[in-house]
Amino acid sequence: MKFIAFQKPYWILLVLITSLMSMVANAIEPPRIVSTDAGATEILLALGQGANLVGVDVTSKVPKPFTPEVVGYHRNLSAEGLMSLRPSNVFGSEHIGPKEAITALKRANTSFLLLPSAKTPAGLIENIEGIASALALSPNTLVNQVNQRSELLNKTLTEITQHQNQSKIVFLLYLQGRGMQQAGEGTTGDALIKLLNGKNLAEFKNYRAVAPEALLSMQPDVILVASESDYAPNDLLKQHPVLSHTPAGKQSKILYVDARSLVSGISLSAMDEAVRLTGELSK
Amino acid sequence: MLSIKNLCYSVSGKQLLDIHSLDCAEGEFVSLLGANGAGKSTMFKAIGGEVLFKGEISLHRKPMKQWKNLSLAKHLGVLPQVSQLEFPFSVEEVVSLGLIPLKASKAEGRQLVLEAMKATDTVHFQKRPYSGLSGGERQRVHLARVLVQLSQAELSPLLLLDEPTSAQDLGQQHQMLSLAQSLSHDRNWGVIAILHDLNHALRYSDTCWLLDEGQVIDSGPPDMVLNAPQVNRVWGYVPQVVVSDDGKRMLL
Amino acid sequence: MVVVKRWATEVLTPPLVIGLVLLVALSITTGPMDLPVFPSLVAVWDGVWGSGLSSLQEYEYAVVWDLRLPRTLLALMVGAILAQCGAVMQGMFRNPLADPGIIGVSSGAALGAAIAIVLLPVAVQGVATPLAAFVGGLLTTLFVYSLARSGSGTSVVVLLLAGVAITAFSTAMIGLLTYLASDTALRDLSLWQMGSFAAASATDLILVLITVVVIGTFFQRKANALNALLLGESEARHLGIDVETFKRQAIVLTAVGVGIAVSVSGIIGFVGLVVPHLVRMLVGPDHRVLLPLSGLIGGGLLLLADMGARTWMAPSEMPVGLVTAGLGAPFFMVLLFQRRKSLI
């Protein structure tokens, strides 16, 4: 996981402490948790619930040694498949479905916590608190951690804005060889731009395909390239050399974003990614 | 039994059929002759109710439009020239399709089908797939089907044959026409057959309708109708008339 | 000499019915959850007669009654509808390649569903998607049909070509919609197009039951008309069939049937095309036996496919359309390879 890679000692310590706490709290019967949302899975892992995860959706990344079953796509869950895992708690986004599966699970006395996708650190904290309280855990350590991150982020950003105006940012979903999609309002890309205190140049909702020429005319200060490979910015420039004439291109501010950290709104890993990006921006 | 009055049929201004009056009696074998495009098949379509025409065609004094579908099906059978089947039927199954308008128990149905196959000499390949048959065999299978269809007629049925001999060999041609002749003479059916061989018309039919450009230029006994000048007028060929050993006229 | 061999219906039907009953029992007793076999079956009895004989826990009882039974019945009936409508379309158009979607029902339904999934808010999609799919399928068919109709009747060629054209158009429109769609909508759309019986509600079941009864009885009564049509339209007319009326009824009824099937379960390919062929290989093209057996075998095969869909990747679920096409297509190819000589 990206965030573990970055602040390794800290996170490991956190994981250890929280798992120890939860082990004490639930010594008799540990919960059986299913998470159908990548963000929720991250929070559960950070709360030390890795060993209690019995099922996760396809977008969740769970590190070894935990081996929960994969329950598929969160809009297409199998009611009986979930029930066969005998979950005590199901965490997922509010778009979980189909509704027949949810109704059936509710009848089998499974407790559901459906969380909105977080668009801000405050939303993330609410989700952490929600999950922690559902499992009777203390959210404080993790919440503090998020707050620290948030403060660090703001501090760096304030420093940056002392030298320059609010950055005009474009967020691109880079589809290797199949063009690129620009993030509009309501997307996680947009949330990330806001987190970076930037101005999203897109004036539409959702993702839309965008031509290199249109990007050039927007004159972005920063281009964020979301991909699963950190080679994506180079790839993009090689494919569309014209982008080197944008302000972002001239100042080497065509930056890689790990797309995997953004599958579920402003998650813990998205926070880490934002911190890393502010480091790059302040260069 | 069949009476055609003032039949007019035209497509986009072109007159395809213009027939003042024609009658076919019970027990009469009519040959319908004419050059290609004279309107022979169109006339069959008009009788079969497949085209919208002006005028009146009636069967047993009842206009075609007043006949109920199923009742008409039992009294009017059409043997098509070619029939494609995209699905793997056996011969017996094709013949059994003639049972559709009938009321018959399973055993009765099977009996009717068997009789029709015997009459058309198709019994020996009844289990074979229809798709494996030659053109002539297929034609006989369909004739058997039409015979089944007409087998429960309350009044004398009318049988329309569209070039029934086109795909048969010499022996089968005569078998086919003898069968048609006996249906009309022995069982009192009305039979109208589109024929190409004038000698077939001379030999088997009682009456001949000669069609040219949608109009009946002559009708009557074949000996009278098929004289050299009229054959020349229709087909543009002057035949030589000879008399065979059994005293019948033939055209060469 | 090549001889046509046919299985007698009397011989074929009892084992098929017994097989189907066993399949239903199997479907009720298998799933990602390990439920005891006998009590699960008793639970079905309990539910019907209000008795309390089963030893199942309440939530296990719910698995049988709320999950397995509805989708078992839905798969059976949708399979029967699709297979019968496929047989009817192939017969009516005298085209062994026809499937129930050939007159544009499926593509129109897909377009309707795509509009609902992409353009409408998630909250109303539960109701809106099936409704839009049904309306889309029906409108497309009526459009195709009115295009093919003229004073002298309905042209099959125009009908088929219009079906192809409208399918191409729908595909383009769906492409446009996917271009505008959010990631979630895109994923939903592709899942919908792969079909599923997971969302079987009581209303769905009632709707599909009515459809299966209406379609089954109507076409059974018109089996002879379909047989006659195999000879050709004018031959059918000579056999006393009112061809135009029947064509109109058959098109509307299959459109409604397939539209309902698609709206409750998404697009499930291949059943409507393959099953009638399979049955024809056994009993021949006579619709009087072809139709009921197609319904029986179509239902059974789709149920089998759904059992695969919900167990193979458990605890997650595979779209059943993938199973039908993924297994149906190769199976069909093998069958064609073996039987190619006897098929025309």
From TrEMBL, chain A:
InterPro entries: ABC_Transporter_SBP (IPR050902), ABC_transptr_periplasmic_BD (IPR002491). It holds the Pfam family Peripla_BP_2. Keywords: Signal. The keyword Nucleotide-binding does not apply. The keyword Signal applies. It comes from the Bacteria. Residues 32-283 form the Fe/B12 periplasmic-binding domain. Residues 1-27 form the signal peptide. This is Hemin ABC transporter substrate-binding protein.
Automatic annotation (TrEMBL), chain B:
Part of the ABC transporter complex HmuTUV involved in hemin import. Responsible for energy coupling to the transport system. Residues 2-238 form the ABC transporter domain. GO terms for molecular function: ATP binding. Keywords: ATP-binding, Nucleotide-binding, Translocase, Transport. It comes from Litoribacillus peritrichatus. This is Heme ABC transporter ATP-binding protein. The keyword Transport applies. SMART domains: AAA. It holds the Pfam family ABC_tran.
Automatic annotation (TrEMBL), chain C:
The keyword Transferase does not apply. Keywords: Cell membrane, Membrane, Transmembrane, Transmembrane helix, Transport. It is found in: Cell membrane. It is a multi-pass membrane protein. InterPro entries: ABC_BtuC-like, ABC_transptr_permease_BtuC. Its main location: membrane. The chain crosses the membrane at residues 12-31, 69-89, 101-124, 130-148, 155-177, 197-219, 250-277, 289-308, 320-338. Belongs to the binding-protein-dependent transport system permease family. FecCD subfamily. This is Iron ABC transporter permease. It comes from Litoribacillus peritrichatus.
